[in-house]
Design a protein that fits this description.
Blueprint (H helix, E strand, L loop, with lengths): L1 E5 L6 H11 L2 E7 L10 E5 L5 H9 L5 E3 L3 H9 L3 E3 L11 H16 L12 H20 L1
Helix pairs in contact: 1-5, 3-4
């Protein structure tokens, strides 16, 4: 088991690394060339910029039982199909039970924007988001290590 981070624009890289250290879990950071990470002892893979280049490379690295930190619903769906455990930067654990609704909502929002309408963007990140992420990541690690 390892934790892979879709690190493009990810605000919880450091929290993820700290939790992984507690559980002695390896971490792999994946990002494109517009992001630079230098975390001692942590493997980082930098990919060329391009639509979904990090997502496709990450899904190719996922093994059953891995944890993936991502805010991308499409990537989360692919991870679930491979037996991984995706979690959002806000602590939402993606499951087979909730991913279809999330993808559908994303599709509807895209249609609204494409036809000239407006949708709400994400709310401003709060300290509570970091706390919830850390709590849920710890619970996910505990669950997977026990099983």
């Amino acid at each position: 088991m390892k934790i892979l981070i879709d690190a493009d624009g990810c605000p919880v890289v450091d929290i993820t690394i700290e939790v992984a250290k507690v559980f002695n879990i390896d971490v792999l950071i994946m990002c494109d060339t517009s992001h630079v990470f230098n975390k001692p002892g942590i493997e980082t893979i930098v990919l060329s910029k391009g639509a979904d280049s990090v997502d496709f490379a990450l899904v190719n690295k996922v093994a059953k039982g891995d944890i993936i930190v991502t805010q991308d619903y499409g990537l989360a769906a692919m991870v679930l199909a491979k037996g991984g455990y995706p979690i959002s930067q806000n602590g939402k654990i993606y499951t087979n039970e909730n991913i279809d609704q999330l993808l559908f909502n994303r599709h509807i929002s895209k249609k609204i924007r494409k036809s000239g309408g407006k949708t709400r963007g994400p709310k401003k990140r709060q300290k509570e988001d970091d706390i919830l992420f850390e709590k849920n990541l710890i619970q996910l690690c505990e669950k997977l290590i026990i099983n």
